[in-house]
Design a protein that fits this description.
By secondary structure, the chain is α+β, with helices and mostly antiparallel strands. The protein is built from 7 helices and 12 strands. 35% of the residues lie in helices and 31% in strands. The radius of gyration is 24 Å and the shape is elongated. The two termini are 37 Å apart.
């Protein structure tokens, strides 16, 4: 664990693609370990081929090797796969009241592309994990609800990601133009989710991506 922390810290200090000047005291203070422990870790990491360390007089320079970078990339991939697995944890919040209007307008397209009759409204979920809704869907292909023109007004494309919330299948919808920040997920479903699941503002919910 300490080696991973140190290797990550070195990357943050510019030891990727070039040498970074470091001090044992400085690294030790950031890792909350002694300078002697930092020196030992650096020696071990150099022996393992993760870094190259150069001492010039009283100055120490460190560069992460291609093997060290490959190690960090593999670790990053495994962590991302474990965490960003299509799960959103959030809490219910109130919207601004426009969801019902847009769901009604898109209802025929939702029926055609998602296969259910949507309740005229959305459940707004403030995302607590991951950082944004896009992190949860980074490797998921959305269903594109095509835009249309009605009464001279243009309605843009909408990305829809199928999800399941407490056994009920619905979808997180992301309009091409939206006023919501990436921390808010708008969920459409065939039922009134607040009533069906007895949810109120602040209720904790978990959304699971349905992969097709």
């Amino acid at each position: 664990m300490r080696k991973i922390e140190l290797l990550t810290l070195l990357a943050e200090k510019g030891a990727v693609g070039g040498r970074a000047r470091v001090t044992m005291r400085g690294l030790g203070e950031e890792l909350r370990i002694s300078p002697q422990s930092v020196m030992r870790l650096l020696d071990e990491m150099e022996a393992e081929g993760l870094i190259e360390k150069t001492v010039e007089g009283k100055r120490t320079y460190v560069e992460i090797t291609p093997e060290g970078l490959a190690f960090l990339e593999e670790l990053c991939g495994r962590v991302s796969s474990a965490l960003y697995n299509g799960t959103i944890v959030g809490e219910v919040v109130s919207g601004i009241g426009e969801g019902a209007y847009y769901v009604r307008e898109y209802a025929p397209i939702i029926r055609e592309y998602l296969g259910f009759e949507p309740y005229p409204g959305t459940l707004n979920v403030k995302v607590l994990f991951p950082r944004t809704i896009f992190d949860a869907f980074y490797n998921v292909h959305p269903v594109i609800l095509p835009g249309f023109v009605k009464d001279g007004r243009t309605f843009g494309d909408v990305r829809a990601y199928r999800v399941r919330i407490d056994g009920i299948e619905g979808a997180v919808v992301i309009p091409s133009r939206t006023i919501h920040p990436p921390k808010i997920a708008e969920v459409v479903a065939p039922v009134y989710l607040r009533e069906t699941l007895n949810l109120g503002d602040g209720s904790r919910v978990t959304l699971k991506v349905v992969r097709t």
